[in-house]
Structure formats: C-alpha cells, structure tokens
Amino acid sequence: MISLEELAQEAAEGDKGAFARIYEALLEPLYRYFYWNLSSREEAEDLTQEVFVRCLTHLDAFDRRKASFKSWAFRIAHNLLVDNLRRGRRRAGEEISAELESDQPAVGESLEEEERRRALRECLLELPSLQRQVLIMKYFADMGNEEVARVLGKTTGAVNALQHRALRKLGGVLDERGWH
Amino acid sequence: MALKLFGRGREAAELELAAEAFLEETPPPEIPRALRDYGLSRVMALASSREESRGGKEPVHRRPAFARRLALILLVCVLVLAGGTSVTYAASLDAMPGSTLYGSKIFFERALLFFTISRTEDARLEMSYCERRVQELERLLRGGEEQGRERWLQEYLRNLDGAESLLDSVPPQEAEALSSHFLEMLEGHSILMHDMRRDATSALSPILERAYEECGACMTRMRKRYGQGGGDLESPGMPGGCNENGGAGGDGRVSPGNGGPSGSPEQEELIPHADGSSAAPPDEHRQAEDPYRQGCKDACDKGSFSWNLRED
Fold first, then answer.
1. pLDDT grade, residue B7 (50/70/90)?
2. ipTM reported for the complex surpasses 0.90
3. How many domains does chain A divide into?
4. Is the pTM of this model over 0.80?
C-alpha cells in the first residue's frame, strides 16, 4: 500500500490520481475534526475544502523528513481553525447555541444519533480549546500522540496530560447534563 | 485522608472512563454528499484558479530570473570594485602631494596599518611611511612643485608621531632595535632636510623648516627616552652622549645619533643636526648592509610591506 507521503510526492509531480487518493484518505478525519470543533456543518464543509485546496497549492512545501503528510495536513487544518475561531470570537455564545439547534441532521442520520452528537458537540465546546483539539484528533481523526503533538507543537507527554484532563472535564460536563 | 484521596482518584478515573465510552459510542457524522461526490473536483478547480492568479502576481524577487540577474549584478559589482581598487592602488603608489591620487595613497597606507595586527609591524610601517614622505619631499623640491606642501607636512608629522608613539607599545626586546633604527632614520632625514633647506623655494621653506624642527625634536625625545645619549647631549664625551664632533657615544652603539665609529673630523665632513648635535653623513655602504633598514625601504619602494622584514 502506498503511503500518503509517496502519494504526495506523486501529486506534487502532477499526478491528479494520487491527489484523489489523498483526498479519499483524509476527507473523513478532516471533516470530523472541523465538525466537532465548530458549531456549523457548512463551516466544517468549507474549511475541509479549504484544507485540501491549500494542500494542493502548497504540495511543493511539504517535506516528508519533517512530518508525516497527515500531520502536515492537520497543521494546516489547525491553523485554519484557529483563524476561524479568532474571527468568530466576536459572535455571542447564544448565537453558537442557536446554530447548533438549527443544524439539521444529514440524510440517513437518525434523530437519536443526531441528538447524541449535538450533546457531545455542546460538551466539547465547553472544554478549553487545546483539550478539545486533543480529544478530537485522538478519537475522531485516528491520530497517535506523536502526530497530535506535532500538529499542536507540544510534547507527547503534554498531549497525554491534556488528554487525561480533557476526559475528566468532559466526563464531568456529561455527568452534569445527565448523559451517564 | 488517604481514603479521601483514593476516593477522588477513583472518581476521576470513572469520569475519564465514562467520557471515553461516550466518545467511542457516539456515531461519527455523515460526510456531506457535496464534499464526497463533488468536493475533489471543486478543490482541483479552486487550486488551479489560485495557482493562475498567484502566478500572475508572483513577487518579482521570487522569480528565478530575478535571482540570476541579481547574482550577476553583484558579481559585476564585486569585480568592478576589486579591479577599481587594484588600479587605484597601483596608480596611487607614485602619487605626489597635491595630486588627486595622493588621498588614495594615504588611504591605502592607513588601511594597511589598520589590518596589521602586531604593534611592531605597525611601528615598522609608520617608519617606512616616514621614509616615503621624505622621498616625496625630495621629489617636490626637484620638480619645484609647491602644491600639496601643507598636506605633505601634515602627513609627515602624523607618521613621525605615529611611529614614536607606537614604539612605546612594542615589546621591550624589539623596542630597542626599532628605536635604534628609527633614530638612525631620523638622523638621515635631518641631514637630508638640512641640505634641502639651501635649495628650497620661498613657499617650501617654512614647511621644510617646520619638518626639520619636528624631526630634530623627535630625535631628542627618542634619545632621552631610550638612553642613547639623550641624557647629556650638550656634554661631549659623556657616556651615551654626542660629542661636538659627532664622536661615538658612551654606549658604543653604531648609529649616527651617537656619532658612530667613523665620526672623526679628519675622516668625514660634519653636518649639524636639527637638535644641535652633529653627525657624519650617512654611510651608503652601511645602510645597504642593514637588512632592517633595507626591508623598510623596499617596502616603501614596492608600496607593500613585508611581514618578515627582519629575522628576530
């Protein structure tokens, strides 16, 4: 099986098929990353697309000796998310809850599942940003401690500590909301 | 207390487990169809349009052609600068006071002094520059030129002063030989200037007088400082002193300053020094034999300074 790094090299040489395979491999983790971090599906969709556009236009800047392709793509995603959150900080918290309320389930999703997801998103949004990032990357983007550490610019030990703290806090919030 | 802590730890672990279970049981969201089906083609289209717009607006300094041109221009600049400097240096070697290139000549002399790391070499260089100044003075007189005389005097005095002050900072074992040579050189200058005073034009005369006085004053100071007869210049025959006939000083050193071994009135014509003492005219043969002096002179003539003028 060809690694993402090899595919990236082929894509950089102009192979569109290679980039299509990268897209296929990273679409789900990237979309989930934005989905759990943001209050709106549309925003998550736009940002996912933007990450791929940036990956494609900056493929020549990718250096496989420095990081894996997935870490590199997530670093772009993380930067985009930080920019987005900085812009969105001006919006009131009520507005974000309203967005979550109005977020319609996608076709084929049951109401119960959607309810559970909405609850988790609300709880996650109560966590500090870094703790939330760690949980989302580890549980929804299938990333290891090392990859997460590289994206966030932390050590693996720090990521581990952040994960424990985040889980404890999330457990508390879920408990308060009666989800246990 | 321990039970309490244990209870808290257990509670935290339970919370972590519960949260982990919730995260794992929550079904992931469906990928929107727009992204799944058309996303890739949209990404491709957006990327190519951005590439196009970026290509048009690429900053000039990032273009390879610009870098090549810049490198070429820099190379040409370096070559022109290096070539120009060499040509100016070569042309300025024979420059006389008052000429356009005289400033460059002085500049190169100072630059050479700046890049010399040893004080001894600095002192030797300053002495060689003093010699060079006197050669310039001779040429000025011979050509009957008067332009640039003020500048000449200024530079001569600066070189004298520089050499004298540098002698204070050279190591003692070298200071003796250097000061002896400097004194010898000054006496040569003094004799030459004494002769020149007779032929000097009215415009050059005050400059020459001043240089002669300064040369004499410098000689006196050197003698006093380094004990070569300076302590008792007026007393003939005293140790280290200079007698009226230019006889050998008490220290027995071979130098015109203390008369030298051939300072007898029967043998040579005596020439009064600017500092009041008298000495025999410089012995050409003796000067030629002195490798130290010869080294300085060669450096002067070539316009460069050798680092090994003297085997110490």
1. low
2. no
3. 1
4. no
